[in-house]
Amino acid sequence: MSSLLDLLGKVMILFLIVGLISACGEIEQVATPTVTPVDSPIPTITQTSIPPTATSIPMAAMVNGVGITLEEYEAELNRYLSAQGNESSKDQTEAAKFVLEDLITQVLFAQAAEKNGFMVEEEVIQARMDGLIVDAGGELSFENWLLDNGYSQQSFNEALRRSIMGAWMRDKILAEVPLSAEQVYVRQIFLFNLDQTNQVLAELESGKDFATLAASYEPVTQGDLGWFPRDFLPHPAIEEAAFNLAVGEYSPVIETSVGYHIIQVVEKDPDYPLSPEARLVWQENALRDWVAMQRDQSNISILYLQ
Fold first, then answer.
1. What are the residue ranges of helices labelled H in 150-230?
2. Which of 28, 120, 210, 240 is the most buried (most CB within 10 A)?
3. Would you give the end-to-end CA distance of the chain in angstroms?
4. How far is CA 123 from CA 31, 82, 250, in A?
5. ∠245-246-251 over CA atoms, to 5°?
6. Measured between alpha carbons, how far is residue 14 from residues 7, 17, 19, 103, 236 in Å?
7. Which residues of the chain have pLDDT under 70?
8. Quick check: 113 and 168 in contact, CB under 8 A?
């Protein structure tokens, strides 16, 4: 049964996506209902009473005309709260925002997968279901698990279908991130004291060798930052300086939130292979940018938020 307890992780795999793109914006509660225009950079999220729909099914949100039912939202929120153990009202408020944001993101990914020609065959759904039933220890155990976790057979099938489609679209985006890019090879001298850093800069200007000075301050790493592309380091000022320097040149003192840096460009390459770490950062950026673009181009209306 333990494998089935991990089922939520298998079904709601797009929670990872929300973690990667959370900087795109958060849900805010406001007093008046608003439908987001297509050209808005981030959709305005609102709370209002639930209006009647054509099917009389209460909706928590609409995404490009596709509804997220209130039942689905509340069930997912309960599962999330149970898994997280959130108890305070503040925790529950944040959880509600997170869950609704995640469901909206899942719909956006699934819609994009369909637009790209990907649909989940019923045989695939059934094969996944058969495997999960085996993991649960039989149909009765699986049905009990569905009930315990607030799923109907239909809602679980839909969650599984959306998850598979979203994962396909996510993987498509990640696969399109290049394997190589323009990069620089950099070494640095990093200090916490500005006066000391200025003294080092004066030594460099008097002719001291950069590599020797870097090694004296950082004997283990020799000040080596290695190869990196744009949009990789947490401090953009270092990247900007590095890509503007010629090979062999060093920078003036660069101040960041962690201290003071002087960098030297050792080598440049217009098409150097990305390290696994750099490609992962680029993939995270690609997901974040993709979701931001989809939200910018989508019509998203929030009808309910706990």
1. 153-175, 194-205, 210-217
2. 210
3. 32
4. 46, 32, 61
5. 35
6. 13, 5, 9, 9, 29
7. 1-55, 86-90, 306
8. yes
Q: Which of 128, 151, 150, 132 is nearest to 141 (CA)?
A: 132
**Contact call for residues 36 and 291 (beta carbons, < 8 A):** no
CA 245 remoteness from chain centre: 32
Residue 226: strand, helix, or coil: strand
Q: Are 50 and 70 in contact (CB under 8 A)?
A: yes
Q: 3-class SS at 53?
A: coil
Structure tokens at 195: 């006066």
- pLDDT digit string, tens, across residues 255-285: 999 999 999 999 999 999 999 999 999 999 9
Residue with tokens 């200090």: 191
What token pair was written down for 129? 């279901």
pLDDT tens by residue, 88-133 = 665 788 899 999 999 999 999 999 999 999 999 999 999 999 999 9
User: In the numeric block, which tokens belong to residue 21?
Assistant: 């793109």
H helices within 59-193, ranges in order? 70-84, 89-115, 122-136, 139-148, 153-175
Mention every residue, 6+ apart, whose C-beta is less than 8 A from residue 91: 81, 84
Strands of the 224-228 sheet, one edge to the other: 224-228, 180-191, 260-273, 254-255
